[in-house]
TrEMBL record:
Protein name from the UniProt record: Molybdate transport system ATP-binding protein
Mop domain mapped to chain residues: 284-350
Keyword Oxidoreductase found: no
Record-annotated ABC transporter domain positions: 1-224
Alphabetical keyword list: ATP-binding, Cell inner membrane, Cell membrane, Membrane, Molybdenum, Nucleotide-binding, Translocase, Transport
Organism superkingdom: Bacteria
């Protein structure tokens, strides 16, 4: 359990953030300048807040009321930055061992570093460098891992290469991870909890699927980023049409290209703005996905759009439609409709599960 409650003034910027999240990956998501890095710097001890308290699994890092302040090196926190910050004169193996040798064999295997150990950092790709930085942080035996935009400097293919390693880390690590990002696709793929940071405050926090399916997320995350996350299992690949068929709680969904191995579990983010609602099963439409859903709620937003909360099996979808459409279609809570979307809308951005 991570418990954060900090207040701090940085020039004109006021940080006033509090959240508590269970073990897993807590994604801190927000625009540039919203205060994400300041929050994790306070957790790491690189920034000393004016007031507050931070504890991780019961270990108190600081508590201004009780006069507790642990210096950074006593917090056992692993920190990975956007740029890997490896020592250029040391080999990969020497870089890994710089802070410790905790669980070395397993970490090298988990991050696929076996073939890289004797290389110098200047002979690594950006993705490989980040894997080494992750390994180095883990070999210090941290009780908390802080990842500050670790993929931001990488191009699409390099992101695709490193994401499965981060997923493996999430699924096997026994320590909490805080993952800072302003890329919703990464957050949706890796997070277990989501804290939305706005103007130095935590605007919303909770289990990732719940926050992303909440109609309020339309205003909170913005039109381009709002959209619920479905869990899917790969059923088969259709090489003739270059499609992947996956099973979700609400029915079968088709994705573009060959995604994952048969049997692999995926997370699909379906953007709210990409869903079309229909009162009838679609015919004569090019969109290939049409899930039967029930309307759970219709929420007015700031503008002319409505957020429609949908039940697909035992999962949630979120659609954004115009007030005029809702009126013309006579939509109401309890209506059975179809959620229609193109294969591209649900296809993960970075070749999910290809490893
Ligand atoms: N030392 C400082 N003095 C004054 N203002 C600062 C200082 N450090 C950061 N800020 C301001 O605090 C705010 C939050 O910065 P922070 O780096 O925490 O945001 P962020 O969400 O991590 O942004 P990014 O995604 O761009 O890294 C910004 O408005 C920034 O300009």
């Amino acid at each position: 359990m991570i418990e954060v409650d900090i207040q701090h003034r940085l020039g004109d910027f006021a940080l006033d953030a509090s959240f508590s999240t269970p073990v897993g990956v807590t994604a801190l998501f927000g625009r540039s300048g919203s205060g994400k890095t300041s929050i994790i710097n306070a957790i790491a001890g690189l920034l000393r807040p004016d007031r507050g308290r931070v504890s991780v699994n019961g270990a108190v890092f600081f508590d201004t009321d009780k006069g507790i302040w642990l210096p950074p090196h006593k917090r056992r926190v692993g920190y990975v930055f956007q740029d890997a910050r490896l020592f250029p004169h040391l080999s990969v193996h020497q870089n890994l061992r710089y802070g410790g040798q905790h669980d070395e064999a397993r970490i090298i295997c988990l991050l696929g570093l076996q073939g890289l150990l004797e290389r110098q950092p200047n002979r690594l790709s950006g993705g490989e460098r980040q894997r080494v930085a992750l390994g180095r942080a883990l070999m210090c035996d941290p009780q908390l891992l802080l990842l500050d935009e670790p993929l931001a400097a990488l191009d699409g293919p390099r992101k695709a290469e490193i994401l499965p390693y981060l997923e493996a880390l999430r699924d096997t690590a026994e320590i909490p991870i805080i993952y800072v990002s302003h890329a919703i696709a990464e957050v949706a793929r890796l997070g277990t909890s989501l804290a939305v940071i706005r103007n130095g405050r935590v605007a919303r926090v909770g289990p990732l699927e719940e926050v992303m399916a909440d109609p309020a997320s339309l205003a909170l995350l913005g039109r381009a980023d709002a959209g619920a996350v479905l869990t899917a299992v790969v059923q088969r690949h259709d090489s003739d049409d270059a499609l992947t068929e996956v099973a979700c709680a609400g029915g079968t969904v088709l994705l573009q290209g060959k995604i994952g191995q048969v049997g692999a579990r995926l997370r699909l983010r379906v953007p709210a703005q990409d869903i079309i609602l229909s009162t009838q099963a679609p015919a004569g439409l090019s969109a290939l996905n049409a899930l039967p859903v029930e309307i759970l709620g219709i929420t007015e937003g700031d503008g002319p759009a409505l957020a429609v909360s949908l039940k697909a099996g035992d999962e949630r979808l979120l659609a954004q439609i115009s007030t005029r459409s809702a009126r013309a279609m006579n939509l109401s809570v309890g209506s059975q409709v179809y959620a229609i979307f193109k294969v591209t809308a649900a296809t993960p951005d970075f070749g999910q599960g290809e490893s």
